[in-house]
């Protein structure tokens, strides 16, 4: 399968726009594994007024108008780009005329986003010859917007996956190209969930880049559509009305966002926790919060979760 992909995939030149994360790192590595690096890797510049700028460790840029910038040595994407001699750019002002001209100089077939935190304006969407693609870790049209995995765990979803879709000016609203379900075992972190969805999504992307016959355009259905904002402090409040499995998986997945507050449904009593240690069915007549040697046992709707007090 990969041999065939390698033979076909060079017909497409693309630019990859991403934020350094387990999701984007895995997508990039998947593409490298099948022998098709992006023509350039573009990271978001926190300064939204900044034009396109090149990473000084890399040369052979398509224009001499690009400005050097320094990126953190701890950024894994920069290390991967340097290792594979992929031009590395940062971009703040997505509408800057010089930046748009520099991107056009690549003459890309595609712009691809994987964990890029900003919507592309119309002028950028018009640059590639074929179109702009985005990998999104949910089964669209459900869970549009930032941090879709966080919200899927928050609402206790048991069925999730990854979507490759064409981009328009909306937030995750473009036509579908491909989707696949991704099973999640209990107790994994968001980083692990990102990696699992990115492995499957990277394969979907590689196939779409390689095979024009695979580039479908299916309008997103209106039924089942949902969108969620970035999580806030209120998003870290957990009710004991939740099922034990939902609470356990959310506490494990979103641990890096914590600490959390668990609110007892009847009394309003609150417990501040750092994460979960385990869970089981059946609560019997135990009190809402029971302190033990291994943390605190919290009674939920159908079971108990052992938590780590913050």
Summarize the structure.
The protein is an alpha/beta fold and 310 residues long. Helix content is 25%, strand content 25%.
Explained architecture:
This protein has eight helices and 15 strands. By secondary structure, it is of the alpha/beta class. The protein folds into two domains: 2-39 and 106-214, Formyl transferase, N-terminal domain (Rossmann fold); 233-309, no CATH class. The strands form two sheets. It has a nine-stranded mixed beta sheet with strand order 4-3-5-2-1-6-7-8-9. α2 (22-33) packs parallel to α7. The chain is elongated and about 70 Å long. The model is unreliable at 1-11 and 57-74 (pLDDT under 50).
Secondary structure topology:
Layout (H helix, E strand, L loop, with lengths): L1 H7 L5 E5 L3 H12 L6 E5 L8 E2 L12 E2 L7 H8 L4 E4 L5 H8 L5 E5 L7 H4 L5 E6 L11 H7 L6 E6 L9 E6 L8 H21 L26 E3 L4 H10 L6 E4 L6 E12 L7 E4 L2 E5 L3 E7 L1
Parallel strand pairs: 1-2, 1-6, 2-5, 3-4, 6-7, 10-11
Antiparallel strand pairs: 3-5, 7-8, 8-9, 11-12, 12-15, 13-14, 14-15
Helix pairs in contact: 2-7
The low-pLDDT segments are 1-11, 57-74
The CATH homologous superfamily of the largest domain is called Formyl transferase, N-terminal domain
Secondary-structure-derived class: alpha/beta
Q: Could you tell me the number of beta strands?
A: 15
Q: What share of the residues lie within helices? A: 10-25%
CATH class of the largest domain: Alpha Beta
Give me the Rg, rounded.
Answer: 22 Å
Summarize the biggest pleated sheet.
Answer: 9 strands, mixed
Determine the CATH topology of the largest domain. Rossmann fold
If you average the pLDDT, what whole number results? 87
Write the CATH architecture name of the largest domain.
Answer: 3-Layer(aba) Sandwich
Ends apart, CA distance between termini: 48 Å
* Secondary structure tally, helices: 8
Beta content comes to 15-25%
Give the neighbour order of strands across the main sheet. 4-3-5-2-1-6-7-8-9
Give the domain tally: 2
N-to-C SSE series?
Answer: HEHEEEHEHEHEHEEHEHEEEEE
General form = elongated
